[in-house]
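Predict the 3D structure for this chain.
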Amino acid sequence: MRKDQQKPDIRLSAGTGDYNIVAIGASTGGPGVIINILKDFPADFRLPILLVIHMPDSSGNMFAEWLNQNCSLNVRTASEGDLLNRANGKVFVAPPGKHLIIKHNKIQFIDSPPVNFCKPSIDILFQSLAEDHGLRPIATLLTGMGQDGAIGLKDIRNNGGYTICQDETTSIIYGMPRVAEKMGAASIVLPDYQIAGKIISLEKMK
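Done. Predicted structure below.
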């Protein structure tokens, strides 16, 4: 199936018990891990994927284009108002210098101060997913220094989502995943090469 072929809409609704969105956060060492994970997804993957990565402003939009050219999914920089219930199989990358949140099944941006010295912040995205009762996320926290994303990952797990941390062996910097693991935020800890397979297996439970 080509990237531009339309697939049936998924429903983002409460009470189904299905996972209905994927979120990925990464920092130092993230680009190589992310592309390897996305390459393992089939073109007909049914869930929208939100991606926050800490990168220099000058590299952010080019990163989305690079991902799009090197995997079978449709990847682009997120835009204000993008609808999630028409975004199955698409990957939305948070633009540089803007916090990305989900509200009423739409992508929205917040121009507020950095969180954990980061903008966009993984915690901001993860916490918005945890607070939305219509969403049941699969959230993944990858390599990176600091602690951004750890609290949000814990919130997602506490609210019924499934959470994955990259393991120490395959992390370039075992900072963010370490903090998350220590606070009990991870449903499972996996090496990077097993993460896509786990997410795909959860999506197939629908």
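The chain has one domain: 21-203.
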